[in-house]
Amino acid sequence: MYSQALNTATGHADTSEAGTRFQTRVDAEERIEPNDWMPEAYRRTLIRQISQHAHSEIVGMLPEGNWITRAPTLRRKAALLAKVQDEGGHGLYLYAAAETLGVTREELVEQLLAGRAKYSSIFNYPTLSWADIGTIGWLVDGAAIMNQIPLCRCSYGPYARAMIRICKEESFHQRQGFEIVTILARGSAEQKAMVQDALNRWWWPSLMMFGPSDSQSQHSDASMRWKIKRFTNDALRQKFVDATVPQGHYLGLTFPDPALRYNEATGHWEFGAIDWEEFRRVLAGDGPCNRERLAARRRAHDDGAWVREAALAFAAKQGVARQREAA
Ligand code: BYC
Q1: How far apart are the CA of 21 and the centre of ligand 1, in A?
Q2: Residue 8 has pLDDT above 70, yes or no
Q3: Half-sphere exposure of 167 (CA within 13 A, CB side)
Q4: Under a CB-based contact definition with an 8 Å cutoff, are residues 208 and 219 in contact?
Q5: Residue nearest to ligand 1 atom 32, measured at CA
Q6: What tens digit of pLDDT does each residue of 147-194 get?
Q7: Using CB atoms within 10 A of its CB, is residue 242 exposed (0-12), middle (13-18) or buried (19+)?
Q8: Does pTM surpass 0.90?
Q9: What is the 323 CA–ligand 1 centroid distance (Å)?
Q10: Is residue 326's pLDDT more than 80?
Q11: d(CA 69, CA 80)
Q12: For residue 119, how far is its CA from the centre of ligand 1 (angstroms)?
């Protein structure tokens, strides 16, 4: 532990003997495990990213949870309920992965509730119609998969392993979303208009999920060197656009981007400028739903206090019973 404490906490390459050995292991695609030596900056980067990811899953339950009582059929309601429960589960695996790095879940939750932690910008937008639920599955889960499949190969073992199960579930979420959107796009004129309106509102925020452009990304260089990230933000955004635009066209939808065009020479879809000012506003806490989301999380935390107290009381009772048995 003492040598860990001497570690520098910056993202610069650690040229100490231990740092060099660590980088050699990473370069050789060895997995780093919780008890292995790691640079302090690597540990901090992982805590930052994994906890933001966990918070995103938990806050991400809210926009969809809003539609559980209004899902159009019992089948849709059951599927949505299961999806939202999956997201709660993802949050738990991710908090558990972060805990292996020496923080507690309580500390991380406290940072979220105090408004000091980031979570994905996308969950600060409102879900105005049922088509938004399909569009979230199609676009938001689609973007999530594009970003998260490479994380299954992250150099840190507990995060990589958590991501394998998460990605399987996310891919099912994406399909259920695309199915909702397909039904609506083939439905009445009103349903088509509803899904087009959802695409108009969710397209640009979905592109922002991948983070700032590479020239502005503070953490990408170090995270790529440590093989936490395998692709840059812009590379993943482009992969997402290339995969998603043909799907939208297949559905007969129009993307809200007059600059969108296929470049035969590169084989990529070129897209217009992202409104980074809007992205910065949302990250700074001033998006359409930031206040509402945090208020809902705080309410849920307060309302759930009795569950935590009951679980602790039960654990204490069991501890006493075990001591009696052992005596
Ligand atoms: N929103 O240097 P950069 C889901 C922050 S859950 C908010 O490029 P990095 C789902 C970034 O954190 C989706 N903040 O950072 C759930 C950093 O801030 P700090 C969540 C963002 O880490 C329920 C600063 O901007 N997915 O899919 O190298 C239902 C500079 O950025 C955002 C994950 O968390 C953003 N969009 O790259 C349905 C995946 N973008 O910490 C679906 C794991 C950037 O310096 N995370 N920031 O204050 C990652 O892959 C990376 O952390 C990111 C950012 C690509 C997001």
Answers
A1: 29
A2: no
A3: 15
A4: no
A5: 211
A6: 999 999 999 999 999 999 999 999 999 999 999 999 999 999 999 999
A7: middle
A8: yes
A9: 46
A10: yes
A11: 10
A12: 7
Q: Is 245 exposed, middle or buried (0-12, 13-18, 19+ CB in 10 A)?
A: buried
pLDDT higher than 70, residue 94:
yes
Instruction: For ligand 1, say whether the CB of 140 is within 6 Å of any of its atoms.
Output: yes
In the reported structure, the alpha carbon of residue 314 is separated from the centroid of ligand 1 by a whole-number distance in angstroms of 37
- Percent of the chain scoring above 90 in pLDDT: 93
First to last CA, the chain: 36
Name residue, tokens 């930031």.
290
Q: Does the CB atom of residue 212 touch ligand 1 within 6 A?
A: yes
| pLDDT at residue 241 greater than cutoff 80 | yes
What beta strand segments (E) does the chain contain? Answer: 261-263, 268-270
SS3 state of residue 262:
strand
Q: Which two tokens stand for residue 283?
A: 């990250």
Ligand 1 pocket test, pick from 48, 120, 213, 216 with the greatest ligand atom count within 8 Å of Cβ, gives 120
The predicted model gives 259-270 an average pLDDT of 98
Whether 223 is in the pocket of ligand 1, judged by its Cβ within 6 Å, is yes
